[in-house]
Design brief:
Blueprint: H1 3-16, H2 22-32, H3 38-45, H4 51-85, H5 106-120, E1 124-125, E2 131-132, H6 134-137, E3 157-159, E4 164-166, H7 171-180, E5 185-194, E6 206-216, H8 221-236, E7 241-248, E8 251-260, E9 277-286, H9 288-293, E10 302-309, H10 310-318, H11 331-334
Parallel strand pairs: 1-5
Antiparallel strand pairs: 2-4, 3-4, 5-6, 6-10, 7-8, 8-9, 9-10
Helix pairs in contact: 1-4, 2-4, 5-8, 5-10
The protein binds phenylalanine.
The site of phenylalanine has 12 residues, from strand 8, strand 9 and strand 10.
């Protein structure tokens, strides 16, 4: 067969080829344009073509090559499109690929548990802003300007002139609730607070508190004590707590809430500073001046308030000895709380 007829036959074969599967496309590729393919011999034949017909033959061979390549490209495109819908490529009986579940942060776990416990006593959850003003964080809580007790908590001011600060405790939410609700009030407000403190194993510049407030007729210190006992029993399965007389400007009388140290079984360790007791918060009977500031008549109503550190409770509960672990996002630490 002369090279021209040979080329024509090949062109026809290429145009008629039906490349419906990726296998047939591969066969086609090997047959025509592979390193031993028939196009190779056509190119090789060019040198034997008489000069006056060389151009014509060359163009024909090029056309064949382009058509063959276009055919393969189209077949490949088709095949990948078809695969998408082809169920047989997926083994429907294969076990699923498991994906890693995240875990709740220990502070969230403890916060939620605290909420559950106080809910059972009839407390409802309220919220307050983290960016506060002087009135709600200090003045209304019986901490007028220049009151020395303001130094108890080093404050981050966002804008001193504009009266914007980061709340130093959740007690600010007490005022907000009392301003908008009439007694009886029975609320807790969990949330984040900020203090300009040096970061150490025991202290951080940001941490979390759960504030509690109960205002009604004839609320007494005994109610406060019973509430805290109930909390300790539910949270730690222990009633080994004590209330140590203390001072807060917004409560009178005031007390510090201590719980016996679980980490060392009260034998003395770094967390309890070798005292066998760990302080988890403050509490007291709401000062009449605070009730008055918030528009509640102290002659008619009385109440108690408490504020507990969520980190402190979590450290005790899980035996964690460094508060910084809560904020480092170390997966190895967080994974333990699944
Ligand atoms: N706000 C106090 C603190 O952050 C705790 C507290 C709350 C004390 C309510 C008494 C009553 O230290």
């Amino acid at each position: 067969m002369n090279p021209f007829d040979q080329a024509q036959t090949m062109l026809q074969e290429i145009q008629e080829a039906n490349l419906s599967s990726s296998e047939s496309a591969e066969e086609f590729r090997i047959k025509f344009i592979g390193s031993k393919g028939s196009l190779k011999s056509l190119f090789a034949a060019i040198k034997d073509i008489p000069n006056e017909r060389k151009k014509e033959f060359g163009q024909l061979v090029n056309q064949i090559k382009q058509e063959a390549e276009a055919k393969i490209t189209a077949a490949k495109k088709n095949a990948s499109g078809a695969n998408k819908n082809k169920a047989s490529d997926n083994d429907l009986t294969a076990p699923g690929v498991p994906y890693e579940m995240g875990t709740r942060h220990p502070l969230s776990l403890v916060k939620n548990e605290m909420i559950e416990i106080f809910k059972r006593l009839g407390f409802v959850v309220e919220d307050g802003p983290e960016i506060e003003d002087d009135w709600h964080n200090f003045t209304a809580l019986n901490l007028p300007e220049n009151h020395p007790a303001r130094d108890m908590q080093d404050t981050f001011y966002i804008d001193y002139e504009a009266n914007k600060l980061l709340r130093t405790h959740t007690s600010s939410a007490q005022i907000r609730v009392m301003e908008k609700q009439k007694p009886p009030i029975r609320i807790i407000t969990p949330g984040r607070v900020y203090r300009n403190e040096t970061i150490s194993a025991r202290a951080h510049c940001t941490f979390h508190q759960v504030e509690g407030l109960y205002i009604d007729k004839d609320v007494s210190f005994a109610d406060l004590k019973q509430t805290l006992y109930y909390f300790a029993k539910e949270m730690f399965n222990s009633d080994n707590i004590r209330m140590r007389p203390s001072y807060f400007p917004f409560t009178e009388p005031s007390a510090e809430i201590d719980i016996s140290c679980f980490i060392c079984d009260s034998k003395g360790c770094a967390v309890c500073k070798h005292s066998g007791w760990v302080e988890i918060g403050g509490c007291g009977m709401v000062d009449p001046a605070v009730l008055t500031n918030a528009g509640i008549d102290p002659e008619e109503y009385s109440g108690f308030a408490f504020g507990m550190g969520i980190e402190r409770v979590a450290m005790l509960k899980y035996g964690i000895n460094d508060i910084r672990l809560f904020f480092e996002n170390d997966k190895r630490f967080l994974e333990q709380f699944s």
